[in-house]
Amino acid sequence: MPQEKDEIVLRGLKENNLKNIDLNLPKEKIIVFTGLSGSGKSSVVFDTLATESRRQMTLNYPAYVRYQMPRYERPHADLMQNLSPVVVVEQKPAGGNSRSTVGTYMDIDPLIRLLFSRIGQPAIGSANDFSSQSSFGRCPECGGFGEVIAPDVNKLVDFDKSLREHAVRFKPLSPSGWQGNWMMTCGLFDPDKPIRDYSEEDRRLLLYGPREGERAYAPFHTKNGPHNAEWDGLLPRFTRVYINRDISKLKQISQEDVLAVSTHSLCPTCQGSGLNPKVLECRINGLNIAEYDQLELPELLEELENIQDPTGESIAKQAIPNVRQLVDMGLGYLSLSRKMGTLSGGEAQRVKIARHLGNSLNNLTYIFDEPSAGLHPEEVHLLIGMLKRIKEQHNTVIIIEHDLSVVREADQIIEMGPGAGVNGGNVIFQGQLAKLTNSPTAKALEQKLDINENPRDHKGYFPIRGARNNNLKNVDADVPKGVLVSVCGVSGSGKSSLILEAFKEWYPESITVGQGGIGISSRSTMATYMGIMDDIRAAFAKATGQPAGLFSFNSLGACPVCKGKGVLTPEVAFADPVTIPCEACGGTRYSDEALSYRYEGKNIIEILELTIDEAADYFTQQKILNRVNTLKDVGLGYLTLGQTTSSLSGGEIQRLKLASQLQKEGQIYLLDEPSLGLHAADDEKLMDVFQKLVDRGNSVIIIEHNLDFIAASDWVIEMGPGGGKQGGQILFEGTPEDMLNAETVTAKWLKDGVGSRGQSKTR
């Protein structure tokens, strides 16, 4: 009897835009899913395969444990067999709070603390005493944060206004919040007198509270009458409520809002470490624990390997593999103290990969979401080596990827398409590279780099002088105006520091389109995000004489059964969650009354079912046409007006963010890896957008590793030569043609791409 092939069997996949597809995925191979952005790659890999594997894994736990774990709904598929446990490495930000660092995320910090508690001199005590979050270990000055943050009275208060006129320029303390209302009604302060006209005593009481030893009674008025309360002063209250606590869980306010009305400086007591000075006296080979945390990872490896004490050596040996994994992933320029929240999407993903590489489990399925993101062509070979090592440990590696160097290394390629959105959802190729022909990926593999031989003349410069942000070494730069500029270099070389920090400080009017999310919800649609839903509702209201709210599923027009959600999620206790379309509205979210009215022959649902391309021919209002055309410009014409933003792919979200900014003219645009998540066929559409932007008088500056974008630019700036301390300098400034004669790492790959796409990097 022939041996049965060990492969994952998927039948009748229908999640999102998938067209009832069947797939057999061989195990212990590297399988790359590629295809246009929105073609259905994530629907197969994440929404079907990963979700079902996770769902079945949770079934092994008792019901009361499952109730505390993430709960997964069964994907829309007819059959899923031979699944193995999955390890999912996405590009989403790594979890953790504002104090989460590379050291804490990788579980290296506890070992370093243990090391210092055992062999550091003078001896301190337990390992916990070396933490800025312990009562002994934290700095008494800054409470362990490393920064002294204090309210800036001149930013917080407009002295020319009264309390009622919003003299306090911080929303929770203004009349719109209960605290601001309390200030106006407590009887201590005149709510209609400008703060500048207060007596010195009253102004001091408002800002700083009562003098030491005194108390200021300030009744807090409610519908049940006054309640006794004491006024503590605007600045002490701000410090206590918004600085000396974790505000990340507050809905009304963000860290940025607090910092906007504050001053913040390095804590002079702990020099930013957050640690008690007594802790900092403890050293190993001349270094204290804060200095250990600041070392770049290769330097840290050297220190750990130099430990001779037998006890210390055994602890160091446990930390060394995790540190080495990070170095092997091309992240040697990082330190343990680097905040996870400051990493780019590609860096965060590589830290996650390094964390998973430490385990010795096998027969798993590893799923990666574009692991080449944020990698220079010079660094992609590190990634490919890591993927092969995972496979060699008898694991299956499934990757969503556009990088042609990674595609070439696949044992099997699966291309989704033929188009995107409603035009995608089919498998257009499955097999080995040699048989891949006549598809968007096949064409991209054959295409050579097209160097811009006729760059535009610049219209002056944006000078930057003496930039020292992060690892920048007193950099002077002249960035040309009115042209397309690419800034490139290896990871950690200083690209973001130069453009997103130094340039932004010199030219704060710049428009930044970064890699962050867009705050999406299940009720956010393409039309609402682009700001045209109000105009569509207004058009309905004008044509029908009904209130505009009737044409919103968040307001009067909501289906009375599902309350505008379109689906029902009945409580099923310990069973898997179930989502079913609302029978009352058929999933449309709208009430029968709302759907009974028409504008230009269509009801509100039929309008929202229009694709962007169709909407451009349907509407006549100029504002709607302007916004719709920008979506067409960035290649999103296939999406519908009513498509939820939560269902978009990463590449689609990036282009949507760009489209939302494209209405502006005569501007400076700063873009952080705009090709992220894009297939090579989509790159041309996006490049066309940038060229049109520049033609209309804008300056466009992009941080990129994508050689197609670099080659098409008018001007290139390369940072380097390495990452971290080895970076922070300008290696090259000139045209793409000039770069062919340069001796830099990017120039090497550019020359290679002009001759052949054999090993070059595009997305």
TrEMBL record:
Keyword DNA repair among record annotations: yes
Domain of life: Bacteria
Entry keyword annotation includes Transmembrane helix: no
Subcellular location: Cytoplasm
Residues annotated as domain ABC transporter: 446-752
Record GO terms (molecular function): ATP binding
Pfam families named among the record's database cross-references: ABC_tran (PF00005)
Leader peptide range in chain numbering: none
Name of the molecule in the record: UvrABC system protein A
Organism the protein comes from: Bhargavaea changchunensis
Phylogenetic lineage: Bacteria, Bacillati, Bacillota, Bacilli, Bacillales
